[in-house]
Amino acid sequence: MKRFLIAGNWKMNKTAAEAESFINKLKEKKISNEEEVAVLVPFTDLYSVKSALSGCGIKFGAQNVHFEASGAFTGEVSVPMLSEIGVDYCVIGHSERREYFNETDETVNKKLKVLLEAGITPILCVGESLEVREQGEEQAFVGGQLVADFADIAAADAAKIVIAYEPIWAIGTGKTATPEQAEEMCAFIRGVMEGLYDGVVAESMLILYGGSMNAKNAKDLLEKPDINGGLIGGASLKADDFATIAEAAASLS
Ligand code: PGA
């Protein structure tokens, strides 16, 4: 049976009150695969989302973390802070953080390690720009990101990491990768994991697609053998659309 994760990346959207009313709406949908669904929310929404989700199987998480446990890092949030709230997931290395906030493969690697140590599941984002794809270099680029991001991470830990393949040209643009393009890259990523670790690790890993996934195109993407779910931005902000995507996954598992 194929495993899925349908994860909503809210980005910088929704106040704590808005988050609470969204979760209440989502719960009313009675999603059939709640355990395979997560919302990734701004830090300020974590408490209200946690309390609104009580009694429901939907998971939750943050969108970034600092690699130090504490100290003089004004404006940052640490793993112990997230652990105490009880988050399930944390997004790491989203292309928006790589582009606007100096996230590098080196900081991504440090963040993955501290999250794994704390038992929080990282959702690691990789993906190429349009320029890289036009040069036909997408596999070399994404392969390079993966080798650097997984440096010195043991197989048992690597298996716990969720990878989201998010081509930058498809994020927020309405220009989704075709199911074939998405499958090709997710299969390539699984192959890289097999090379770095082994076939058992590679097969056990959840590899998601992200980039303009929506209620209409989700099923065609999720049907592909190497796509274990979606990291969904815009369409995760509407309870109806997000629930439809979750049900598309449920119908395939
Ligand atoms: P999008 O964002 O679904 O709005 O394209 C996806 C993401 O950036 O995670």
Description:
With about 250 residues, the protein is an alpha/beta fold. The chain has a single domain (about 5-250), classed as TIM Barrel (Alpha-Beta Barrel), CATH 3.20.20.70. About 45% of the residues lie in helices and about 15% in strands. It contains twelve helices and eight strands. Helix 1 (about 15-30) crosses helix 12 (about 240-250) and helix 7 (about 140-150) crosses helix 9 (about 180-195). The structure holds 2-phosphoglycolic acid. 2-phosphoglycolic acid binds near residues 171, 233 and 235.
Task: Summarize the topology.
Blueprint lengths: L4 E5 L6 H13 L8 E4 L5 H7 L6 E4 L16 H7 L3 E4 L2 H6 L4 H14 L2 E6 L3 H5 L3 H12 L5 H4 L3 E4 L13 H18 L2 H6 L2 E4 L7 H5 L6 E4 L6 H14 L1
The structure holds 2-phosphoglycolic acid.
The site of 2-phosphoglycolic acid has 13 residues, from strand 8.
